[in-house]
Amino acid sequence: MEQQILNYQIERLLGEGGMSRVYLGIDLKTGQKVAIKELLAQLANHDELRDRFRREAQFMAKLSHQHIVRLIRYEEIGTRLFLVQEYIEGVTLEEYIAKEKGPIPEEEAKELFCQLLEAFAYAHDNEVIHRDIKPSNIIITKGKQVKVVDFGIAKIAAGSSSTLHTKTGIRMGTLAYMSPEQVNGREVDERTDIYSLGVLLYQMLTGKAPYDMETESEFEVQVKIVKEPLPRMKSTYEYVSEKMQRIVDKATSKEKGDRYRNCNDFMRAIHAPAPPQPRPNPPPVESFASFGKFLIALILFFAFLIGVLSLNSRSKQEAPVEAPVEAPAAPAAEYSVEAPEAPAAPAETPAEYPASAPARPESVPEKPSNINVPTF
Length: 376
Hints:
Layout: E1 4-5, E2 8-16, E3 20-27, E4 33-39, H1 47-62, E5 71-77, E6 80-86, E7 90-92, H2 93-101, H3 106-125, E8 128-129, E9 138-141, E10 146-148, E11 155-156, H4 163-168, H5 180-183, H6 190-206, H7 218-227, H8 242-251, H9 263-271, H10 285-318
Antiparallel strand pairs: 1-2, 2-3, 3-4, 4-6, 5-6, 7-9, 8-11, 9-10
Helix pairs in contact: 3-6, 3-9, 6-8
């Protein structure tokens, strides 16, 4: 690695992409840290790619916004082309999701995303279409400030969108974040960036891109982009709100005319309060009638059941109680009334009486008038 580029001491390589590599440099006079972007040597002799690199410098020179990285200078030395930009200390949104956060909580995601919308609204007002919005082109600082970098394939809104693609075979954008019109090679405008922003919001809220480029072929992804809606976010992360799902659905509509017209409309949708949940419709009259019949039948059934239980209980209470069986009483001694014999002639000794008198009947008949009953 080189030790010096222009008047900057090279500290380290920050990253490398398909067209360029970026170094961290320090100004030898002021000590200012900068990011130095250089067009790859194997592409430096390609006239159209050199022109694209110059255009990026021109676009960045006309953009001055707190959420867009600032251009410091542009230099050409022989076949080598350099963009010197302000150095932003932070992590890319891609790293922030993959290594620090996973799915970003909704309120935080809304705050970060609205900063992006402000940046792209400003770029669109200046007729600059980015066309390559993706997490690796967005930096988040420690203070949670967002910066947009890499306008490498940006275009002026009124320019041609497909000449470079058809002549060089270089894809204009990153497939997973492309809009249907980009896949089909059609004219793009600010709503193309709206689509890519919708895909980006999907990834911020769920922690994953809607398409897996490692398991799906480019052809399969292209077909899905053109024909199928994005997968439901709740299928990836169940805590995504219905409001955010509706917003992503609109932003990623297949037809440009169905998307938000611009970033300001997009932002207003995010800030708008969630609509109240609709009350369920009352059941039709037939349902009430059916339910009434069922209720009456249920009441009759319980009334019948209560009646049966009550009757059974009453029968048990009124059953006769059997009297205890007692031994029959001994019959009363019969008392026969006979005429007494005439007494024997009186003797000197008194007449003998039985040792015990017979049992006395319960009722004694009246004395006959002609019977003398001895008294004792």
